[in-house]
Hints:
Elements: no helix or strand
Amino acid sequence: xxxxQPAPADGPTIQVGGQESYEARCxxxxxxxxxxxxxxxxxxx
Length: 45
């Protein structure tokens, strides 16, 4: 999260102090801004 919003797909992989900003999300709720949505989606079981 950056200022309460999801981090962009091209953001840094490692964030110092990132544990304080971590929020667990299920696959259906997980959203990444700027992610290519033209990819084939697989059904969740």
